[in-house]
Each structure stands twice: as structure tokens, then as C-alpha cells.
């Protein structure tokens, strides 16, 4: 394993940021630390980097006990949300900076910087200042600078959080392609579920300083360990005492025979979101959301007021989660 976190805890005053966290992060993989704000994911990333010290526990990087090592001896590259660029240096000099302070030969620096600028598609902007780049270009420059010293591990703290939705989507697709080319062990923090599901090989879900579940995007989405993971990764609706994905709910027009697995109600709202149609059905003191394709919706000729029956598709019962009634009442 590339990174081993063992029984790490961290407090800030009375606030428990991490509570006895243990996780193994595989070598060469792209791992997302996903969770709500204040859940502990950035604190864990900073402890891996050596920018924060744990109150207890151990950090091991590539077989080396790094728990008490300073950041410069951990061989990690760190990319912050707001770039942290040297404003008075050109793009070329920003990327070269880490190599220059390590006193690498000039020919090696030149070759490495040119290689990286080509890799992040910024070679034509080498002489510009960071202020002359777009947000997406500055973030690509920050990634190139972090990769310049050939780190064992690349750490990204909400790398695309300051960018607009379109640029963020473009950059996360680019990051996935970049990772597949350079194969450096990469850990990135995000609270964006779609970003984690789209980019990561593995996701570590963190909430209130504890790990809720670790697994591939498919495992977490289809087989969530608990109510929190189910709700946090993707849309959910409640049908009876089960949480289920809206696209896994079947809907049929008309009343049927009494069936405990079904809820009979009326369509109370229809919303189109791009290629999806979201249908809300109210019945049995519940509002159930069903997601349909446009063609499915048109074929059923649904209208507000239509009487329908809804049930969980039989093949997805294993992927549902029972509602935690105590937690539901608490919220």
C-alpha cells in the first residue's frame, strides 16, 4: 500500500476533527476523500502532507513512517484550491521553482518543465504571469508545479472548488486522463459527489471525523453501507421504510390490487431536468420521487392528478437501505 493511516485522531480545542481513523490508500490509484464540510477530509489530507500533526496514530508513505517527518521530507506534491501561485514569476518559473530550490542541473530543469507544460497544455503560455491565465489554466499550472519534483504522492485539496461548473467538469475529465498518463498515487478532497463518482478509482466517505465506507464508485452507489452514504451519494427517495434511488422506482398508471410493496397515489408534480423527467407521487402520507426518461414519460401520458402505483424494482432490493427512524426524527 502506498499510504497507511492507522488510528489517527485530531482535535482542535473541543472539536473532534478525526476520531481514530484508519485507511489504506493503494499505490498508483486515484482516491477521493468525500464528505460534507467539516467532516474531517481536509484535515486528514493535511496530516498526510505533514501540514498538520496528528494527536495520535501513525502515517506511513511507501513503507516509510512519516508520522513525525516535516513536509519537505515526505516527497508529496500538494495542490491547494486557490492555486498559491508566485504572482511575480512566469508560468515557466512557477513550474520550475521546486526544481530550482533543489539545485537540479539547468538542463534537467529545462527538460522537465517543457515536458510538464506540454503535458498540461500550457507550453504556449510559458512566459505569461499567473494573473494572465484563466482559473482553469492556473489550476493546471499548479498541478504541473506539484508534479515537477516527481512526488511519490499527489495531494489535491478541493482543486476545482473555486471554478465555475463548466470549467470544473472539463478539468476533472482532464485530471482523470492526466492520472492515467503519469500514474502517481493521487488523493483528492471533494464534497462534490458527482466529481468523486466520475474521477476516482476509490472513494473514502468521511463524516464527523469517522470513515463511513470505503469502496469503488459502483460499490458505494449500488451497495451503500448505511443511511448516510445512501443519502450523500446521489439522489434518494423513501418508499415505505426503504431508501431507494428514484431511477430504481417502477411506476404504473391506475389503481391495482392491494399490495404492501406498492404505494398508490397521485402525481402531484412533474419537473423536466435535461433528459430526465422527475415525477412526484403523493400517497400513504409519503411523497415518492420517480425518475423517468423523456420517452418513458411520454409513453405513459402522465399528468398532474393521474392515479399511479409505485414500487421498488425487484432487482434492486439488495441495494436499498432501511431508514434509520431515530436519525430521521433527530433531523
TrEMBL record:
It comes from the Bacteria. The keyword Nucleotide-binding applies. PROSITE patterns: ABC_TRANSPORTER_1, ABC_TRANSPORTER_2. Residues 3-233 form the ABC transporter domain. InterPro entries: AAA+_ATPase (IPR003593), ABC_SmlMolc_Importer (IPR050093), ABC_transporter-like_ATP-bd (IPR003439), ABC_transporter-like_CS (IPR017871), Mo/tungstate-bd_C_term_dom (IPR008995), P-loop_NTPase (IPR027417), Sulph_transpt1 (IPR005666), TOBE-like (IPR024765). Keywords: ATP-binding, Cell membrane, Membrane, Nucleotide-binding, Sulfate transport, Translocase, Transport. GO terms for molecular function: ATP binding. This is Sulfate/thiosulfate import ATP-binding protein CysA. The lineage of its organism: Bacteria, Bacillati, Actinomycetota, Actinomycetes, Micromonosporales. The gene is cysA_2.
